[in-house]
Amino acid sequence: VGEKRPKVKDGSRKLFITPQTGAYSEFKRELSGRLKISREWKPKEGEPNNPDPVIRIIGDGRLAAIDMRFMDPPLPSDPDSKLNKMADEVIRVYKETAGNEYKDKASGEIEPNKGATQVVFSDLGFGAGVAENRGFNARAWFEKRLRDAGIPASHVAFMSDHKKSTAKLKLFKDVNAGRVRIVVGSSKNMGTGVNMQQRLIALHHLDTPWYPADLEQREGRI
User: Fold this and answer.
1) Residue 118 contacts by C-beta under 8 Å, 6 or more apart in sequence?
2) Quick one: pLDDT band at residue 143, thresholds 50, 70, 90?
3) 56 phi/psi in degrees, rounded to 5
4) Which residues are registered as beta bridge partners of 183?
5) DSSP letter at 28?
6) Per-residue CA distances from 8 to 11, 129, 149, 201 (Å)
7) What is the reported pLDDT for 1?
8) pTM exceeds 0.90
9) Which residues contact 155 (CB under 8 A, 6 or more apart)?
10) How far apart are CA 189 and CA 120, in angstroms?
């Protein structure tokens, strides 16, 4: 699209570096020990498969980096976790852009709904399977953070709840019209074929996808 592509505000994406807590630093040392054992493991007659494969250790590390409650659900909420910092930013942008007005492209008149929209990308953490296996429901916590901030539930949508093409198209229309202002999804279900950019003002990456192409597709939405 050449020069028609809008420039990113301040020139590039913003990185939010969260501080490492004592619990996370300790867990990283545990992961290091597990990696050493896993890499030195050799198949045995009574143990043909690695009981702690590297991919599982990497998965634990990625989830722990988002919120340590994935590893230890009884832990108190850490205000500096990636999950909470992301929620802080979503709430801030939501409130700061609540009065934004948009014109109907056909008529040129101001549309009745005010407010800019945002998307949150994460390929792990928000699924029902993760919540069941880990004992910590990140989606429920995120929804609670938004609700406590006064954001109506009707303004928040998860792409995983919109599986049929008709449901997706309706969601895209609702986002473009400002009826829905926050959408959460993954690279897979929200990376391509998603046209809801008319009011998008912010995109948040809670995790880093495996492939650079996935990152490009995510940011292509805005």
Assistant:
1) 90, 93, 94, 181, 182, 183, 200, 201, 202, 203, 204
2) very high
3) -70, -40
4) 119, 157
5) H
6) 5, 35, 27, 10
7) 59
8) yes
9) 94, 179, 180, 181, 182
10) 12
Angle (CA) 38 70 78, round 5°: 125
DSSP assignment letter at 196: -
CA dihedral 189, 69, 137, 159 (to 10 degrees): -20
- Report which residue type is found at 153: A
Mean per-residue pLDDT over the chain, rounded: 94
- What is the arithmetic mean of pLDDT over 65-83? 96
Q: Say if residue 4's pLDDT is above 80.
A: no
Helices (H), 111-206: 128-134, 138-148, 165-176, 187-190
**Contact call for residues 117 and 89 (beta carbons, < 8 A):** no
Q: Which amino acid is at 36?
A: K
CA distance 61 to 134: 13
37's tokens: 């054992």
pLDDT at 123 over 90: yes
Q: Which amino acid is at 76?
A: P
The values of phi and psi at residue 139, to 5°, are -60, -45
Q: How many CB atoms lie within 10 A of CB 66?
A: 21
Contact of 87 with 151, CB cutoff 8 Å: no
Q: CA-CA distance, 73 to 141, in Å (whole number)?
A: 12
**Secondary structure letter of residue 208 according to DSSP:** -
**Quick one: which of 69, 71, 67 has its CA closest to 18?**
67
